[in-house]
């Protein structure tokens, strides 16, 4: 049994004998332990007496539970010494805990910053790289039970027989670890592969093509999970091309996988250049009327915020607004908008901030209640994370980026965990249980995302990054073909003020929120300052809570963000000799890069804002190192992770 090997690898000596079992094992059944609420994946770890001997029992209703229980025990003992009695028990709150790989068939990864794709499509299906097993082990250890292998900007080729065979080989490796394989599909595949004239979901020939394709996939992968679809978004084909709805498209695919118990994850990330509506409103406008129209094996996958994985966004207004549809949340683990793998930014606080947000729809309802299906009693529920995994030796581009993969898995299992508890556990499991190391690493991590918010654009500003690759500052960009690709579209700064008016006097995106939440966002006085300029266009002189003007406050945030990185460098320096030398060195170098780039963000942004508002910097504030023209002249044509 795989769980046995994991225990042998990881557990300290001196424990009582361990029994890995299921609820049905006769000696375990006799103990009458509470297995009812555990479902197929939950576990129970207990010290019990069996045949008169103290025994450490690890059990679930099936093998998956026992495997997760083994990992839970390993995790527990990494942070807590063994006591004579032990009782751990947990079942996942979310059913589908899925990584989304934006991996292309040529080995590149869209928004990937950890090297080439782990999947070597060229040598698959014959060569099964041992790293595929390690990948599965790592995922199983944090409860992830599904993986979408290819980019949502999908090529039809991944549905051809050779690529199905390659996916099947990966599925064979992952299966023992409780991980199902899914594929992103290109909606126009019936035209490209099937020679049909249309991909209209209402055309019987199209539906028949997908059904035959699903049957073919299930012959190769009997437990195939299903399809993920990006349709009518950023140039991808979809049902809207034929005047059909997103529900028509999703349901047609859902019918194809239904006989095999497959599911469809249909993304709500849609916006169109032909639509002058505030981009933040378009997904809601398109999807809300479709509530109740989706087949029962469809989940609508909604990004955590209404724009696109910014360092901070208010939660997406669709959460709570489609009670008759299971909504999956999509987080981005890879740091497309947080300056890539080099910057240390622990995303636990970003994830929990969204999961804990009150939807305003029902009393006390949170985004997590919607996502885990509790709010409406949905059978299906899911959380997706855009993976930050590649072929780099450290898997994620840096040791600290592994924490984001870890946090995603832990929160998908239990969205109520605190970001800090997860950070502490990760620090101990990664660096060992030295108190100073764990405290210091946790302290660095906990404020690190806020620091990125501060030095890239605080107070609810968003999408100020440079064009295309999204690396570094570009708040001045105003010349891109689509209005909503330009940073100026988002910040709307002029001599008088800054911010996007999303109240009734502006785009009224606030109207897509419900009850007390909508009321709070409707007025600057009741909007949290962290989201102020997301919802309001305000004068530079507006007084903030601390008495400073908005301009002074914004400048203060830039300086605070840069200072935080400086402190992280000192904190990390204090751990020299206490963590692995190679990891220490790489992290120290990355922190130095981060400090330089945080300064660059600050200086470039201040130079630009001053060119717009014509205001001096507050007294004592250091001026930008270069003039605005210098910052505008910076170009990075080979920045990693670009779409192609
Ligand atoms: C996979 C953003 C990214 C794109 C990504 C898209 C999406 O726009 O920049 O690279 O495409 O989101 O989530 O579909």
TrEMBL record:
Kindly give the SUPFAM superfamilies that the UniProt entry links to this protein: (Trans)glycosidases (SSF51445), beta-N-acetylhexosaminidase-like domain (SSF55545)
Name the Gene3D superfamilies for this protein: Alpha-glucuronidase, C-terminal domain, Chitobiase/beta-hexosaminidase domain 2-like, Glycosidases
- One Pfam family named in its UniProt record: Glyco_hydro_67C
**Keyword field:** Carbohydrate metabolism, Glycosidase, Hydrolase, Polysaccharide degradation, Xylan degradation
Q: Where is the active site?
A: 234 (proton donor), 308 (proton acceptor), 336 (proton acceptor)
List the Gene Ontology MF annotations in alphabetical order. alpha-glucuronidase activity; xylan alpha-1,2-glucuronosidase activity
Domain Alpha glucuronidase N-terminal span(s) in chain numbering = 18-73
Q: Which reaction does it catalyse?
A: Hydrolysis of (1->2)-alpha-D-(4-O-methyl)glucuronosyl links in the main chain of hardwood xylans
- In short, the EC number is 3.2.1.131
Q: Which GO terms describe its cellular component?
A: extracellular region
Classification via InterPro entries:
A-glucoronidase_C_sf, GH, Glyco_hydro_67_aGlcAse, Glyco_hydro_67_aGlcAse_N, Glyco_hydro_67_C, Glyco_hydro_67_cat, Hex-like_dom2
Q: Where is the Glycosyl hydrolase family 67 catalytic domain?
A: 79-395
Name the enzyme's class.
hydrolase
Q: What are the Glycosyl hydrolase family 67 C-terminal domain coordinates in residue numbering?
A: 397-620
One GO biological process this protein is involved in is: xylan catabolic process
Subunit and partners: Homodimer.
Family membership: Belongs to the glycosyl hydrolase 67 family.
User: Which protein, by its recorded name, is this?
Assistant: Xylan alpha-1,2-glucuronidase
Q: Which organism is it from?
A: Sphingomonas pseudosanguinis
Q: What is the lineage of its organism?
A: Bacteria, Pseudomonadati, Pseudomonadota, Alphaproteobacteria, Sphingomonadales
């Amino acid at each position: 049994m795989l769980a046995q090997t994991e225990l042998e690898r990881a557990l300290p000596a001196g424990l009582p004998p361990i029994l890995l079992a299921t609820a049905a094992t006769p000696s375990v059944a006799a103990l009458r332990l509470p297995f009812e609420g555990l479902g197929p994946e939950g576990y129970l770890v207990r010290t019990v007496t069996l045949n008169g001997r103290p025994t450490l029992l690890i059990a679930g209703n099936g093998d998956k539970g026992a495997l997760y229980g083994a990992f839970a025990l390993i995790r527990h003992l990494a942070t807590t010494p063994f006591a004579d009695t032990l009782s751990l028990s947990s079942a996942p709150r979310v059913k589908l805990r899925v990584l989304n790989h934006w991996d292309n068939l040529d080995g590149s990864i869209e928004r990937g910053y950890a090297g080439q794709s782990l999947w070597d499509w060229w040598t698959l299906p014959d060569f099964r790289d041992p790293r595929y097993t390690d990948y599965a082990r790592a995922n199983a250890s944090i409860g992830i039970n599904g993986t979408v292998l290819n980019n949502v900007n999908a090529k039809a080729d991944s549905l051809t027989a050779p690529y199905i065979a390659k996916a099947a080989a990966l599925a064979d490796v992952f299966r023992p670890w409780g991980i199902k394989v899914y594929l992103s599909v290109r909606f126009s595949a019936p035209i490209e592969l099937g020679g049909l004239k249309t991909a209209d979901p209402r055309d019987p020939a199209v539906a028949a093509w997908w059904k035959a394709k699903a049957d073919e996939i299930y012959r190769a992968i009997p437990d195939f999970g299903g399809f993920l679809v990006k349709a009518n978004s950023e140039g991808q084909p979809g049902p809207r091309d034929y005047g059909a709805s997103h529900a028509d498209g999703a349901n047609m695919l859902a019918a194809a996988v239904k006989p095999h118990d497959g599911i469809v994850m249909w993304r709500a990330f849609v916006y169109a250049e032909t639509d002058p509506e505030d981009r933040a409103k378009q997904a809601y406008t398109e999807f809300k009327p479709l509530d109740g129209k989706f087949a029962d094996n469809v989940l609508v996958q909604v990004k955590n915020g209404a724009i696109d994985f910014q360092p901070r966004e208010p939660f997406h207004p669709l959460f709570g607004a489609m009670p008759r549809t299971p909504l999956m949340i999509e987080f981005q683990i890879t740091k497309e908008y947080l300056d890539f793998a080099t910057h240390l930014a622990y995303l636990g606080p970003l994830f929990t901030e969204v999961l804990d947000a009150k939807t305003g729809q029902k009393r006390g309802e949170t985004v997590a209640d919607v996502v885990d299906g509790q709010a409406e009693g949905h059978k299906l529920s899911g959380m997706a994370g855009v993976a930050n995994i590649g072929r780099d030796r450290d898997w994620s581009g840096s040791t600290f980026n592994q924490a984001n993969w870890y946090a995603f898995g832990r929160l998908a299992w239990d969205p109520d965990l605190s970001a800090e508890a997860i950070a502490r556990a990760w620090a101990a499991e990664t660096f060992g249980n030295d108190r100073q190391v764990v405290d210091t690493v946790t302290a660095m991590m906990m404020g690190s995302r806020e620091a990125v918010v501060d030095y890239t654009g605080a107070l609810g500003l968003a999408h100020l990054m440079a064009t295309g690759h999204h690396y570094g500052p570009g708040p001045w960009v105003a010349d891109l073909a689509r209005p909503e690709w330009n940073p100026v579209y988002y910040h709307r700064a002029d001599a008088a003020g800054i911010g996007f008016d999303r109240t009734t006097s502006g785009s009224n995106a606030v109207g897509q929120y419900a009850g007390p939440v909508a009321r709070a966002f409707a007025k600057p006085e009741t909007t949290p300052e962290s989201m102020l300029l997301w919802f309001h266009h305000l004068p530079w002189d507006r007084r903030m809570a601390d008495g400073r003007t908005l301009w002074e406050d914004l400048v203060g945030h830039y300086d605070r963000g840069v200072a935080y990185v400086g402190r992280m460098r000192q904190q990390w320096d204090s751990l020299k000799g206490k963590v692995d030398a190679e990891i220490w060195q790489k992290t120290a170098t990355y922190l130095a890069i981060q400090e330089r780039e945080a300064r660059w963000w600050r200086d470039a942004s201040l130079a630009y804002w001053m060119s717009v508002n014509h205001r001096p910097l507050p007294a004592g504030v250091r001026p930008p190192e270069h003039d605005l023209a210098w910052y505008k002249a910076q170009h990075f044509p080979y920045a990693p992770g670009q779409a192609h």
